[in-house]
Amino acid sequence: MSPHHRIKKLLIANRGEIARRIIRAASALGIETVAVVSDPDRGSLAAREAGEAYELGGSTARDSYLNQDRVIEAAQQTGCDALHPGYGFLSEDGGFAERVIKAGLNWVGPAPESIRALGVKTAARLAVSRAGVPITPGSEGGKADRELEQAAAIIGYPVIIKAAAGGGGRGMRIVNEPGEMRESLERARAEALKNFGSEEVYLEKFIIEPRHVEVQLFGDKHGNLVHFGTRDCSAQRRHQKLFEEAPAPFLGDETRERIHDAAIRAARSVGYYNAGTAEFLVRGTDFYFLEINTRIQVEHPVTEAVTGMDLVQLQLKVAMGEALPISQDQVAFTGHAIEMRINAESVAEGFRPATGTIREWKRASSVTVREECGYEAGDTIPPFYDSLMSKVVVHGDTRAQALFKAFQFLKGYSIEGVPTTVPFHAWLLSNPRFQDDGIDIGYVERAFTADDAERAAALLIEDPHHRGAGFQERVVVGGIAVDLLHEEGGTFLAQPTGSNGDPLAPSTWRRSNVRQEALDAAARCAQG
Question: Parallel, antiparallel, or unpaired for β 159-163 and 52-55?
């Protein structure tokens, strides 16, 4: 039986929207908060909302949020008895977790032993495979280049090189033929050493056009372990997620339950507790273990939206020794939720990260959403950290309704001063492939272009003379009213409307270079 240790004062070792999210959860439980801040973050929303702000000094992540000595010193100097790492930075560093505990602080996360067991990808693959979890064919860790070349020939091309000590797309290379292997290994090792302090890499069979499906896990210190369902995170650019949804669509019930079961078995294999996420590659009814992220995820709000659970509060309660308040058969799912990551990036320039001052941030839509921001109008986006500005979370009774509500929200949403990923989200939401069949993890890089970004941005332009923003005329086709947008480039986007005059779900929208074809196709779709 784990003893109960009440957290009275919590150090938040992070920044931006996740720091504000933790402040909100802790405050609801009556826990005081201290936010550590770098020099550029002194006046941030998180610094102002926390009970105290402790200045770490420095601007870069290495000089501030990754400075373990300064972070632990901050907790001790401010009288904190616990530390929450959020995500990124030090959240998956087993050595840091151990230092926090040795300093007499309560670590809000899994045991250091679990973090270490899952932090080295080759060791994690071995542990979960012993528990019966399917993994892709691959090599062992610690192999020399020549041994990896031999392993690739046995596995069969294409293969993917991965850093053993980290993820997030760094130290990763896809190799399609033997002639590419030597140079790819050299580059992957260099990236792995730079980002994770270890040049160790290993190989996996490269699965062609899979989806990225993950399972939200939660365990306590009493041996209880549950899942809170699936998420789909297949909309990615350079292995970085852009859009997430829960539950994962286009999965058969049997496949979904097998993935749930595999996630639980993977977590049990390392004695896991607190929040974690098991990630899988899925192709058809087959799936393969990727990794378990030993922290709260950026996309956790979509799971909260469909389950009604506050996962960050639950993290704090588990860290205090409380048992999970819910068993697996009590977990219920309602509707569908999506999350759009609003990043400071120029999508027309290959998602180039951007900096600058936010001049205006407008939210004119009547659609109700949950938005979690790290900045506000007047703030400057610094060049030292990731580009995430905000997360927009939309919930609907069905997936189609959630997608429709998201598009309607974006019509009244604009940020001036820095380029953002809003045009990308407009393109994705109106993409027939995404609406009807789902996409694989490489689809965005194959299909999305700068021209698409420009056309998508045009879809969001408000037309004050028409209630359907951006649509220039309403035409009745076969008894169905259809809003028609004359797009730049000579194409037409047709949106059938319901009896209340509002456009139907995006899956009914149709686009064509021929006006009548777009109208007819949309009307036929609306009729069933």
Answer: unpaired
DSSP bridge pairs for 184? none
Q: Which residue segments constitute the domains of the chain, with CATH numbers given? A: 9-108 (3.40.50.20), 137-205 (3.30.1490.20), 208-334 (3.30.470.20), 342-460 (3.30.470.20), 464-526 (no CATH)
Helices (H) and strands (E) in the chain, counts: 17, 26
Burial (0-12, 13-18, 19+ Cβ within 10 Å), 421: buried
CB atoms within 10 A of CB 349: 12
pLDDT per residue, tens digit, the chain (528 aa), is: 456 689 999 999 999 999 999 999 999 999 999 999 999 999 999 999 999 999 999 999 999 999 999 999 999 999 999 999 999 999 999 999 999 999 999 999 999 999 999 988 888 988 999 999 999 999 988 899 999 999 999 999 999 999 988 776 788 999 999 999 999 999 999 999 988 889 999 999 999 999 999 999 999 999 999 999 999 999 999 889 999 999 999 999 999 999 999 999 999 999 999 999 999 999 999 999 999 999 999 999 999 999 999 999 999 999 999 999 999 999 999 999 999 999 999 998 999 999 999 999 999 999 999 999 999 999 999 999 999 999 999 999 999 899 989 999 999 999 999 999 999 999 999 888 998 899 999 999 999 998 888 888 877 874 333 333 344 577 788 888 888 887 655 678 888 988 777 788 888 999 887 778 888 899 898 887
Residues in Cβ contact with 93 at an 8 Å cutoff, skipping those fewer than 6 apart: 68, 115, 119
Are the C-beta atoms of 453 and 446 separated by less than 8 Å? no
Can you say how many angstroms the Cα of residue 28 is from the centroid of all Cα atoms in its chain?
25
- Spatial CB neighbours of 126, under 8 Å, sequence gap ≥ 6: none
Check 295, 341, 399, 455 and give the catalytic one.
295
User: Any catalytic annotation for residue 116?
Assistant: no
With CA atoms as reference, report the closest residue to 412 among 434, 388, 392.
Answer: 392
Rounded to an integer, what distance in angstroms lies between the CA atom of residue 124 and that of residue 118? 5
Burial pattern 354-377, b for ≥16 Cβ within 10 A else e, equals: beeebeebeeebebebebbbbbee
Phi-psi category of residue 490: left, alpha or beta, with phi > 0 → left and psi -120 to 50 → alpha: left
- Extract the tokens encoding 50: 């926390």
